[in-house]
Every structure is written in C-alpha cells, then in structure tokens.
Amino acid sequence: MLKQKRNPSNSISEVVKALQEEAKQSLEEGFVYFREDLKAPKGKAGAVSTLKTNSSKALEAYKDKIRGCMKCGLGKTRQNFVFGEGDPDAKLVFIGEAPGADEDEQGKPFVGRSGQLLTKIIESIGFKREEVFILNIIKCRPPNNRQPEPEEIEKCIPYLYEQIKLLKPKIICTLGNPSTQTLLNTKEGITKLRGRALDWNGIEVVATFHPSACLRNPAYKVDVWKDVKFLRKEYDRLCGSSN
Ligand code: URA
C-alpha cells in the first residue's frame, strides 16, 4: 500500500519517488504485485492433464535411466537425485544451480526458502509453478551447499542438455551466475547478462539473479522483477499470449 498519497499538486519527483516506494513495498511483500495484463493465459492454466504426452513419457524414461547415476562423488553423499519437475510440455524452463538440503531430502528442485521465492516470482508473471519446468545444472546436492566442482558439472551437464532437448522449451530463464555461465559457456557476469535476450542453440535465454541472492540482498528483487517482466514479454512474443 502507498504510504504517501499521490495528488495532482505533487511535483514529478515526488510522484516518481512515491511510485518507486510503491514498487519497492510490493516487491518486499514478495512478488505478489500482480498485474492484470500478466494474468495466466487462458487454456493453459488450471488442472494439469493427467494424460501422458510423448514428452512426458520420454522424460520419465530418461529419469529412470539416469536417477541411479554414480559418475561423480555426489552420488555417494546424496539422499535423492533431483531430476527436476514441472509440465513436460512447458514452453518456459527455469534453471538453477544445484539442489540444497531441502531439495536433497525431498528429491524436488527449489522447495526450500529460495524455492518459495522462485514460486512467487513465477506466479508474479502469471504462471503456476506446475506450468513451467524447473531444472538445475547439477542433480545432486554438494555437501554443505558448497559450489559444484568443475568435474561434477562436466559429468552432469549432458543430463541437462538432454532434458532441454526433450522438453524443447521456447524460452529458458537461468537463475544466477553459475547456471547462466555454465549454460552459456561464458565468464561474463550476471550483471552484464541479465534481463536481455541471449541464445543457447537457437533457444532464447533470459538470465536473472538467483532467488537466494534476493534473500540475502532484497534490493536485487527490483532487478529480478524487471527481468521477469521482460521474460514474460518474450514468452508472449515467442509463444503467443494465448498459449
Ligand atoms: N538452489 C538451486 O539452485 N536449486 C535448487 O533446487 C534449490 C536451491
């Protein structure tokens, strides 16, 4: 809610300040700032079909094939292999870095604190979490949440490539430096890469900050909000807003 009342006699700078404050407050409330024009597209939202599509079958078969992976040391320390989850026919895919403790325990991506924020971010642009697909660069939790080692990424990344191949998304949103830099094979930082149209093998990529960065520093939420508004615009352009 706006604390400072807007009235016609306010100067432009007062109005701008009030609008900034309004946006900041909405963001701090946790991405519940829902714009009418970003409501979930008709026809896609609602009950998720229980009928298995070809991509659903192919993804399930692939999951069964790789879930017992022991190619790196994380196979020995994990509780669960975190394949990823969502709508197998999703046109929009989010990619994070690696499962944390909650994800390892439940075998699902982004279910801890940063996952709750990611869900709000997804909802803020008019999707339900189960309408998109959520993946990670690596599928097993590094002990004590340390950064994945290059060797672990090297062993695991072919799984991500295959998942993208099976999902055939129109647009990918990478979350944070490690996932953006790994997918795009670049050393360029997220601050330079975020919020614009990038490319991975003909699939558009939009990078933004990781939700855990927003939890550490809430000021990042303003940039994430800008980035995901752009993501939604690009989604509509690529998929048609009625998809
Ligand atoms: N952070 C990630 O990058 N991925 C998860 O699944 C959870 C937290």
Notable characteristics:
10% strand; six-stranded mixed sheet; 243 residues; alpha/beta; single chain; Uracil-DNA Glycosylase, subunit E; binds uracil
Proportion of residues in extended strands: 5-15%
Please identify which CATH superfamily we are dealing with.
Uracil-DNA glycosylase-like domain
Look at the structure and give the mean pLDDT. 86
For the sheet with most strands, the description reads: 6 strands, mixed
Question: In words, what does this structure look like?
Answer:
This protein is α/β, with parallel strands linked by helices and 243 residues long. The protein has one domain (53-238): 3-Layer(aba) Sandwich (Uracil-DNA Glycosylase, subunit E), CATH 3.40.470. It has 10 helices and 6 strands. The chain has helices at residues 12-28, 54-66, 74-77, 101-106, 113-124, 150-167, 177-184, 190-193, 211-216, 220-239; strands at residues 85-86, 92-96, 133-136, 171-175, 198-200, 203-208. It has a 6-stranded mixed beta sheet, sandwiched between helices. Strand 5 and strand 6 (203-208) form a beta hairpin. Helix 2 runs antiparallel to helix 6 (150-167). The longest helix has 20 residues, at 220-239. Uracil binds next to helix 5.
